[in-house]
Amino acid sequence: MLHFLSPSSPLRPRFLLFSNPPANLSFLAMSAAAPSSSSRPVRGAAVPVPSIGADEAGAVAEEAFKRHTSPNLRRSGAGVAVVWFRNDLRVLDNDALLRAWASSEAVLPVYCVDPRVFAGNTHYFGFPKTGALRAQFLIECLGDLKQNLRKKGLDLLVQHGKPEEILPAIAKSVGAHSVYAHKETCSEEILVEHLVSKGLERVVITQGGASDQRKPPSPKLQLIWGTTMYHIDDLPFTVNNLPDVYTQFRKAVESKSSVRNCSKLPPSLGPPPSSGLDEIGGWGTIPRLESLGLNVTKAGLSEKGMHFIGGENAALGRVHEYFWKKDQLKVYKETRNGMLGPDYSTKFSPWLASGSLSPRYICEEVKRYEKQRVANDSTYWVLFELIWRDYFRFLSKKYGNSIFHIGGPRKVISKWSQDQALFESWRDGRTGYPLIDANMRELSATGFMSNRGRQIVCSFLVRDMGIDWRMGAEWFETCLLDYDPASNYGNWTYGAGVGNDPREDRYFSIPKQAKTYDPEGEYVAYWLPELRSLVKERRNFPGASYIRQIIPLKFDGGHQKKDQQFNRQRRPNHMYRR
């Protein structure tokens, strides 16, 4: 499965940022075997992802752009089109950008630094909506996008404010006939789309710019589907008839649908508009972290783990590094449940979430690898995980806001606790269970956690602690580099047993998970250095050598089948009532 993926008084979390972030900076963290020692992080040193340098990543990106460029493309439109970049911060395989180019004589790419995203709070519990780590990652994505647009004859206009206020003003200034953007599926994003559309309706293009008088006087918002591997129009059923069981969905799309090829690029996407930019303040500037009101905290943990580098070049570089340079794709299925090091899984998820990487590009590279090297269960399993990502995106469209509600899509009635002390012990990695604490400290320090780790900490919070699953989901929303609402809340509803598929209702035994996936305690000792002096067999079971356990486990993990179906008859009545 993909990564995890009545209001109480706000909890004020702390969050970390690397004190020296890389100059460039899964939910698809795609591992039962331990990673090789060569791929493990060194104690006290952070590992950049990708590990290749900026020059090599740039060369990889240039080659990918060349393979996806066609000199035969022609544009037939007139006037000016605006491209509203959101969670699609890439040039390669960006259908909104290509449609804008084809329908115009000039293109203006725009990004709005929305205060509701960068300075807002989560819905129920008031955590920061975007933590410092993800904000820094997005800043780097914007810088890289700006450079790649310049190479294609354009630039990126950056303005601070709400899109529904900024975009109509820009459209009026440059005389745009359309604003192109990728369609989102969750309510907050859909509301902004509605507000932008209404704002554009009030704009009348009277003169100037390159407006075509045959076009309607008001610019239109043109929403394009482009966030999934399988296009929504190619599904063998309507979204409202989407199966509630993933396997049924997967088998249907694999047998009846095809993944479209990546869109081809013209040699140049320019020019930008020739007039109108001065009256809106020029191209603007990409924000710095401090200007967003986010704190930089120097802490020892921030020097450990992985540093993900933001941007399309880094994303394409990581695909090249993992598939072709390190040749890890052929063993992905065997290593995907790992927890330590950069190469037990693909680590594509932060770039997928920001839209710096197209899922169709990954699919194309998998197929190319299968032709040139090997096709096996591991190569297929990367696509299997991408289909999970698609599934959660389509589910968010089918079920709407119910994925954010306490009862989930099935409106399950349960009794949950919102005990702040218990939640904070989980959040801060102070539960007394090394496997939980190590994963939560990795999340705070890096913005990332393995797929296996996400399932374990989710199960502990909701099953053992009985804490409202939305508190965990919103904390992940704050921290994760790879946060997107559909995948995050989709995974949490599954983990809490309130998802659309009632069969997805599992309990993860911490002792069993530790023995299976961290048998020598290397992972917990990395994040909890006080355990390193213990013999390997005791690191996950340190007893009095570690902090006191905050609560007892609900079930004796030593006698449970691995990841067994959660036994409804044994659930305490005060925790879960179905």
From TrEMBL:
Requisite cofactors: (6R)-5,10-methylene-5,6,7,8-tetrahydrofolate; FAD
Positions that bind FAD: 332, 345-349, 385-392, 482-484
Stretches the record annotates as Disordered: 558-578
SUPFAM superfamilies: Cryptochrome/photolyase FAD-binding domain (SSF48173), Cryptochrome/photolyase, N-terminal domain (SSF52425)
Domain Photolyase/cryptochrome alpha/beta: 79-214
UniProt KW Flavoprotein keyword: yes
GO MF term (any one): mRNA binding
Basic residues bias spans: 568-578
GO terms (BP aspect): photoreactive repair
InterPro entries assigned: Cry_DASH, Crypto/Photolyase_FAD-like_sf, Crypto/Photolyase_N_sf, Cryptochr/Photolyase_FAD-bd, Cryptochrome/DNA_photolyase_1, DNA_photolyase_1_CS_C, DNA_photolyase_N, Rossmann-like_a/b/a_fold
Site positions per UniProt: Electron transfer via tryptophanyl radical: 416, 469, 492
Manner of cofactor binding, per the entry note: Binds 1 5,10-methenyltetrahydrofolate (MTHF) per subunit.
Any one cellular-component term (Gene Ontology): chloroplast
Keywords: Chromophore, FAD, Flavoprotein
Role description: May have a photoreceptor function.
Similarity comment text for this entry: Belongs to the DNA photolyase class-1 family.
Record PANTHER family: CRYPTOCHROME, CRYPTOCHROME DASH
Protein name (record): Cryptochrome DASH
Organism: Eragrostis curvula
